[in-house]
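Provenance and format

Records in this collection were gathered into a single text stream. Each protein contributes a sequence line and a token line. The two records reproduced below are adjacent in the stream.
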Amino acid sequence: MFDLTVSLDVTGRRCVVVGGGPEADARVRGLVHAGAEVVVVTPAPSSGIEVAAAEGLVTLQRRGWQPGDLAGAFVAYNTREDDTPVAAIWAESRTHHVLLSTLDDKPRCDFATPAVVRRGDLAITIGTAGRAPALAKRLRQQLQERFGAEYATLVEVIEDARRQVLPREVAFDAWAAKWSQALEDLDGLAALVRAGRGDTARERIVATVGKGGR
């Protein structure tokens, strides 16, 4: 079996998390960050979930799962941190056509959530198709050290440079080669941004790519 990795747009969509422990907490934070309409069902919410509910970021149902909780949802998580009926939740997800991820139960998973390093609009994902989540977590820790906060700004710098060199006036292959050359010294560009010299980094990219890629 082959896995296809995709990013789902959950903005404004109902997403249900069944569970209240640290695994649920992590998924709630990710969904809130993505702009989802989050509903958490648990009799024992973590402090993080409590805070999110108090701030109006999530709707908290302080009880165990009940039939109908997945109705209208786009995606759902069953973290199995509460005493939840795994088979019944899976069956309901089939009835309501909800994408479901059940922790440590691959046969009852429509998708696996990758470990993510976020730096502004930059998202670096690490996935193991649900086979080795501890490895994905460890690699995420390493990447968090490797890619600092300056990469969030670097995304904006590159976007500004791209606007300056558009429209493309050469064949796509030539255009791609120019961009590859412009970003070859990625560490150097990041260092400029980190030093507060984002304008210099942008000018360097623009000079390398050239107007229209010429």
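Adjacent record:
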Amino acid sequence: MDISRKTDYALRMLAELVREPSGVVSVRSAADQNNVPYSFARSIQRDLVQAGVIESIRGSRGGMRLVADPSTVTLLDVVETVQGPLAISGCAAAGPDGGECPRAIACGYNPIWRGAQELLDSYLSSVTLAEAVSGRARPVVDARFTRPGESGVAHR
């Protein structure tokens, strides 16, 4: 399970749009500001337009504009838009009945991987673009899953 380079680039480009909510940002400018290859930026732009997160504006003053409310778009929304669902393991991605894994019922690890998947999804769903860009992100982490004295993780 990896957050892809494309997803990282998409998040950087979206940060530019969140910081400039009143205007249009050119794809080239967003790419240059965030060290994203231009051709990759165009591909990301298409994905985000199809998902209804941004709109593309043509013309000499064209570019892209954020149309989704950054206070409601979560990091999980962006990840799944750009690269599809994240999966801790193949059995964690399977359906609720164990899906394609014939050992799911008898496997002691299956509920562990499913729980880890739920934690990851919950964590990424707890942070919006607006929170991440502003530095106010307070991801939700159950205290049972943090190390004593661990800093930098907020609990709701």
